[in-house]
Specification:
By secondary structure, this protein is mainly α. The protein contains 17 helices and five strands. The radius of gyration is 55 Å and the shape is rod-shaped.
């Protein structure tokens, strides 16, 4: 509670908030990267498990195909006695060795798998069956009078009873051995082991895929949650930056333009700045109020005098202030023909008309005999039309002689707001614009632009020549 009250009183520190947001964002980003990497790994493992299953299934199928091929060649040799079939048999058994290669693949991929042990069992059954096939092929070879037999067939020892059989009987016995119920029982055992191997592969692969899929889904879930959290954090950060920093600054700009104190809102740092500004503002206001009226105001006209002008020009904001220099046209003739007393009344009238046609926030100053300066403060963009209208109405009012005073007109030079110009530069610009009006018929206004400086230089050069 005390911490909350402290925050309400002094405001949340924008620096600390930014640091905390950065740390949280960094942590979430790191977590996102981790989950993304883990998700990719899970999918890779899933793909690898699928590839392994396909390779292992191919190996099991290859072993069965090789076993069937050996059976077919052995049966063909014992059936028709063609030596080519026996050669094919031993080329597969000793050179191609598809069964052994398939078993090697399974051992490399899944040495601890039940499928590997089942495939080993099928291989053992196949090897046992080969002994029966060797015996049958030896009977056929002897019946055919074959010589130069393969080592495995040569090593077979026929029983004494089988040796005494004639050629036809040996052929019949060899066919019986390759086609009787016992042979096919052993063959079915091999097929059963192979079927169990494939089913085990399917189950183990499915279990692995299921685990990896769950892992990938879990990582994706975390990733989505982290993205939502991060998106929410970004929105919170933008909201806090807007509320604690941007919004108070925008409000402060409005108050400064209105020449008001700043509200103490927003982040702790901005509250400190606003408080400091308000102290300076109050001191400035007190200094303005404490000025001796006679010291800052013209005794004749009641508007600000030269001293007041000097104070005002250093306090206005050139970026939102226009400076207008007014000069009475042919004022010397008024003094010469009507007298200085009438001339003073005309000056009072000029000051009154200027004050009436400008806002209470604007400053009207008399800086010379018949020269006046007006500061138009807190201006928005493109005030030219407004200023032109004011000058026209001022001259209309001064041309009215119903008060018994002679008609008079003003020439005005205007320097528009420019944040890159100080008050002295603005006075120079307004003075150049006034000079242009004086040289081109008086009774009107001119806005400063760069061409005026070039024109004045050319006029001076012409006068010197």
């Amino acid at each position: 509670m005390k911490l909350v009250e402290k925050w309400k009183e002094k405001g949340i520190s924008l620096r600390i908030t930014s640091i905390l947001m950065f740390i949280v964002s960094l942590a979430i980003t790191a977590a996102l990267l981790f989950t993304a990497v883990e998700t990719v790994r899970s999918f890779r493992r899933l793909a690898a498990a699928t590839d392994d299953y396909m390779e292992l299934e191919d190996a099991a199928d290859t072993l069965m195909a090789a076993s069937d091929y050996l059976t077919e060649e052995a049966q063909a040799y014992t059936a028709i006695g063609d030596r080519q079939h026996m050669d094919n048999y031993f080329r597969e058994a000793n050179e191609t060795r598809r069964r052994e290669n398939a078993l090697y693949v399974l051992k490399q991929k899944a040495p601890e798998s039940n499928a590997f042990h089942q495939l080993q069992q099928a291989m053992t059954g196949s090897l046992d069956l080969m002994n029966r096939e060797y015996y049958a092929m030896r009977l056929t070879a002897e019946a055919k009078g074959e010589t130069d037999l393969p080592t495995e067939v040569e090593a077979v020892e026929l029983s004494e009873a089988d040796r005494k059989l004639d050629a036809q009987q040996k052929m019949d016995l060899s066919r019986e051995l390759m086609h009787d119920a016992e042979y096919y029982r052993q063959k079915e055992n091999i097929r059963a082991d192979m079927g169990s191997c494939v089913e085990t592969l399917k189950k183990e692969t499915h279990d692995a895929q299921d685990r990896m899929e769950k892992s990938a889904r879990r990582m994706l879930g975390w990733m989505i949650a982290l993205i939502i959290i991060q998106s929410g954090g970004i929105l919170v950060m933008l909201w806090m930056n807007s509320r604690l920093g941007i919004r108070p600054v925008l409000r402060a700009v409005d108050h400064i333009r209105k020449d008001e104190e700043l509200p103490i809102i927003g982040a702790h740092e901005f509250r400190y700045l606003a408080g400091t500004y308000n102290k300076m503002y109050a001191a400035y206001k007190r200094s303005i109020e404490n000025l001796n009226f006679k010291a800052s105001h013209d005794e004749l006209t009641g508007v600000y005098n030269r001293a007041g002008y000097e104070l005002i020009r250093t306090s206005v904001d050139p970026a939102t202030t226009a400076m207008l220099i007014f000069d009475a046209d042919i004022f010397k003739d008024v003094n010469d023909t009507e007298g200085h007393e009438t001339g003073d009344e005309v000056l009072k009238k000029i000051a009154t008309v200027l004050s009436e046609h400008f806002r209470s926030d604007d400053y009207v100053c008399r800086v010379g005999g018949d020269e006046f300066v007006v500061f138009m403060v807190h201006l928005k963009h493109n005030p030219e039309k407004l200023i032109e209208t004011k000058v026209e109405r001022i001259n209309e009012a001064l041309s009215d002689t119903s008060d018994g005073l002679p008609a008079i007109s003003l020439s005005a030079g205007v320097a528009l707001p420019d944040e890159n110009a100080d008050s002295q530069e603005m006075f120079r610009r307004a003075d150049l614009a006034l000079y242009y009006v004086k040289e081109h018929g008086r009774h009107g206004c001119c806005f400063y632009h760069e061409m005026l400086s070039q024109l004045k230089k050319e006029n001076r050069a012409a006068e010197e020549n």
